[in-house]
């Protein structure tokens, strides 16, 4: 009987036992879903995004089902960075890899959250959510303007020595350019994509289905978009890419790895099956074994392309 494949991967200095993470905002702070899934069965999880102070989100309705997806406008409600450090982290089992997610409305505040997380035991890395509105730029997302994104990555990189992932917005015309900006400013890796800005309407009431009007579309509907962006970004930079968007099975996850992702994040699917990330991790290992890969890491970028697409 042949040896099982080595499932370990290195995501920009964050060593994972396998390439499966759960996405920020879909798995709480870990403890909420620990009864359904042993968190040591997966590579790790990205905690709910944190701000300097506790934040109350939008009023309901703030989640709505759409064909092959979900709209949400929760507005990043969270307990704040101090409560996360003192209350949430200690409640987690030992051996769980935790990546803290950070967002704010101003660059200086992003940096301050990163400073407070620096050196905190059990935080393996930080993911900077660059899809948030920048109040000093008229509400445009940090990740939509190269110069603003560069300033954000530069400031957060200076604020912490932890591995730093930048979660990019899909609401741009050139994702490769944004990936290169992150690499140039010292990011350890990038995560993409975040939810796609979207709108849905209830025709009977003639109102938007969300109280916030606009929301973020996630789920299987965005997977082909995410795959395209992961493929483009991974060819543009040398730092690792973490693929996110519509992953609901091991087959979905393998697609992202083949397109150049080092690791993946499972998001909306957690709402349907809180144990799905573990199943996906097992399924990736089984795929690698079935296809003769000794290391799961070797699946990265193994997509067979027509010759004209080769570098």
Description:
With 311 residues, this protein is an alpha/beta fold. The model has no long low-confidence stretch (mean pLDDT 94). Strand 1 (9-11) and strand 2 form a beta hairpin. The protein is 27% helix and 19% strand. The strands form 4 sheets. An 8-stranded parallel β-barrel has the order 3-4-7-8-9-10-15-16, surrounded by 6 helices. A 4-stranded antiparallel β-sheet has the order 5-6-14-11, with no helix packed on it. Helix 2 packs parallel to helix 3 and helix 3 packs parallel to helix 4.
Question: Beta-sheet strand percentage?
Answer: 15-25%
- The averaged pLDDT comes out at 94
Tell me about the largest β-sheet.
8 strands, parallel, barrel
Uncertain spans:
none
Query: Would you tell me the structural class of the helices and strands?
Result: alpha/beta
Order of helices and strands: EEEEEEHEHEHEHEEEEEHEHEHH
Keywords for this structure?
eight-stranded parallel beta barrel; globular; alpha/beta; 8 helices; four-stranded antiparallel beta sheet; single chain; 16 strands; 311 residues
């Amino acid at each position: 009987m042949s040896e099982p494949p080595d499932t370990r991967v290195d995501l920009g200095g964050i060593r994972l036992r396998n390439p499966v993470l759960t996405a920020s905002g879909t798995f709480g702070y870990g403890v909420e879903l620990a009864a359904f899934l042993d968190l040591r069965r997966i590579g790790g999880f990205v905690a709910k995004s944190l701000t300097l102070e506790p934040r109350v989100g939008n009023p309901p309705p703030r989640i709505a089902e759409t064909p092959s997806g979900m709209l949400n406008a929760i507005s990043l409600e969270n307990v704040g960075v101090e409560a996360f450090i003192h209350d949430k982290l200690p409640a987690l089992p030992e051996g769980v890899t935790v990546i803290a997610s950070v967002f704010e409305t101003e660059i200086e505040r992003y940096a301050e959250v990163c400073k407070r997380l620096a050196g905190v035991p059990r935080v393996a890395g930080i993911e900077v959510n660059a899809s948030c509105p920048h109040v000093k730029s008229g509400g445009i997302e940090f990740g939509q303007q190269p110069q603003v994104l560069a300033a954000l990555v530069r400031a957060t990189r200076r604020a912490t020595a932890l591995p730093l992932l930048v979660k990019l917005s899909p609401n741009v015309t050139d994702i490769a350019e944004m990936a290169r900006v992150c690499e140039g400013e010292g990011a350890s890796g990038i995560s993409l994509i975040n939810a796609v800005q979207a709108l849905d309407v209830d025709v009977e009431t003639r109102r938007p289905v969300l109280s916030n009007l606009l929301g973020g579309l996630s789920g299987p509907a965005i997977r082909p978009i995410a795959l395209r962006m992961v493929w483009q970004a991974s060819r543009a930079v040398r730092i690792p890419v973490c693929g996110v968007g519509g992953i609901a099975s091991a087959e979905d996850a393998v697609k992202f790895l083949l397109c150049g992702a080092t690791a993946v994040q499972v998001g909306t699917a957690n709402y349907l099956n809180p144990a799905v990330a573990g199943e996906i991790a097992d399924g990736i290992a089984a795929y690698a074994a079935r296809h003769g890969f000794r290391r799961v890491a070797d699946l990265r970028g193994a997509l067979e392309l027509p010759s004209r697409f080769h570098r």
